[in-house]
Specification:
Oligomer: single chain
Number of strands: 4
Number of domains: 5
Largest sheet: 2 strands, parallel
Strand order of the largest sheet: 1-2
Structural class: mainly alpha
Length: 463
């Protein structure tokens, strides 16, 4: 009787079943996505309608005073340093001021507050005493029309908090996950059960076919290897040359991997810890262009750059209790940044309502990012003041970092390469200029590198 060879593969059958299941599941997920998109469109339309209605109410309420858009420009230019619309700052909150003060009084107060105080005006003296007898800056250049515009801007209704919007978004997301009332997890569970049933059916079919084949005398090979063929690993094992070559390759690869692994010990490139208070260098050093050495002032005169005192932060944040809406990003909202300023106030014991220190302070446990070994000497003042090296040379584009990380390797080889390629700044000190001129003649070059001045000697960094 003629024997036939049958190749059975359960793996191929299962893969084919998975493909079929995936093709059947596409319409279901497409329907869910379509429903989600429809709900998103409806939600967006409703939100847009609410926003338009609130904007219309705000325009109607402020149109009697003046031009709110022009008032916003005047407010940001003249008033924003001391006043906020809806909360107290260096000066009182301005929202609602037209309901408790006459416009004629507001005109006089803005033009010359000191004159009202000296005249014995009761309201002016109350404000003067409440805010530590600090007189308001005079703005005689503002016309009454300009003041009307400013009042129109500050009297706009306070926008609704975004918490409600996020809550609506979460509810929309929860409803969209339902897929028309059926949770997505339930659909996936049904698919898993169906796939399991198919696996059981295929195993049973395979056993049945195998039994029929044996009864008919048909030879079955579950793999596609020919009979009598020697496995590859056994051929390599019997060949002495291949075994030696294989051992050498394994030894070289293992040595290279071990060397690479050991060279990473102590290298913290990319280290990015989470700080107790989120501080954005992108906002401070980037958008606001604050000089690095304003906060890290010790870098000019000390070995270390130092951790800035929170009092340095309060030089600005005594008057800045919240960020502008334009500061927010997709990752961090305005409310998030404002909460970090609140953490700063809590740490230094500052009451933003009374603008007074409470005396209750809390330590801030900053996490150090750049940390050289104790046996390596590095002096910030030598590099920053004498060498005139920019902070970005070692710390990377710090002005672009939302969260600071270690940009460079800071290894010995990295430092030596910098010493070999960086020219020394010769101007600024007559003593050094004379030495640099003599060394330039000695080496026959126009500019010296730190390496030519002994910057690669062991004793420079290890002593």
């Amino acid at each position: 009787m003629k024997k036939e060879i049958i190749h059975l593969s359960i793996t191929k059958a299962l893969l084919f079943a998975a493909v079929i299941l995936f093709s059947f599941s596409q319409p279901v997920f497409a329907q869910d996505d379509q429903g989600q998109d429809t709900e998103a469109v409806d939600s967006t339309a409703a939100q847009a309608s609410d926003d338009a209605q609130s904007a219309g109410d705000a325009d109607q309420g402020s149109s009697a005073l003046g031009d709110a858009d022009h008032g916003k420009e005047l407010f940001n230019t003249n008033c924003a340093a001391c006043h906020k619309r809806y909360k107290r700052s260096t000066g009182p909150a301005l929202h609602g001021v037209t309901k408790i003060r006459e416009m004629s009084w507001i005109y006089d107060w803005v033009h010359n507050s000191t004159a009202l105080i000296d005249a014995g005006d009761e309201q002016a003296n109350e404000i003067f005493e409440e805010f530590n007898q600090t007189p308001m800056t005079h703005f005689p250049q503002l016309s009454e029309s300009d003041i009307d515009d400013i009042m129109a801007y500050v009297e706009q209704p306070k926008p609704e908090p975004k918490a409600a919007a996020s809550g609506a978004a979460s509810s929309d997301q929860a409803s969209s996950q339902g897929g028309g009332g059926i949770p997505t997890n339930a659909i996936l569970a049904i698919f898993a059960v169906v796939l399991l049933l198919l696996v059981v059916i295929l195993v049973l079919v395979n056993k049945t076919l195998t039994r029929f084949a044996k009864e008919k005398g048909i030879t079955i090979h579950e793999d596609e290897k020919e009979e009598g063929r020697k496995p590859l690993w056994k051929s390599i094992q019997e060949n002495q040359f291949l075994m030696i070559l294989f051992s050498i390759v394994i030894l070289l690869v293992g040595s290279y991997w071990l060397y690479w692994w050991m060279m990473q010990i102590g290298v913290d490139q990319g280290y990015q810890p989470v700080q107790p208070i989120h501080y954005s260098h992108r906002i401070h050093a980037g958008d606001n262009q604050i000089e690095c050495k304003y906060c890290h002032y010790q870098a000019r005169v000390s070995k270390t750059s130092g951790i800035p005192s929170l009092n340095v932060c309060m030089n600005c944040h005594m008057a800045i209790s919240e960020v502008s809406p334009e500061t927010a990003t997709d990752e961090h909202s305005k409310e998030y940044y404002d909460s970090q300023i609140a953490k700063l106030y809590d740490a230094v014991g500052w009451d933003p309502n009374t603008h007074q220190y409470t005396g209750k302070t809390k330590p801030v446990k900053w996490v150090r990012i750049h940390n050289l070994p104790d046996f390596a000497y590095f002096n910030h003042s030598q590099h920053v003041m004498v060498g005139k090296i920019k902070c970005q040379e070692c710390h990377g584009p710090i002005q672009e970092m939302e969260v600071v990380h270690q940009e460079k390797k800071l290894t010995m080889g990295w430092c030596i390469n910098c010493h070999r390629s960086t020219d020394v700044k010769m101007k600024g000190n007559k003593y050094y200029e004379k030495i640099h001129e003599q060394l330039s003649k000695k080496y026959g070059v126009e500019s010296l590198t730190e390496a030519q001045m002994g910057g690669v000697e062991c004793g420079r960094c290890h002593y």
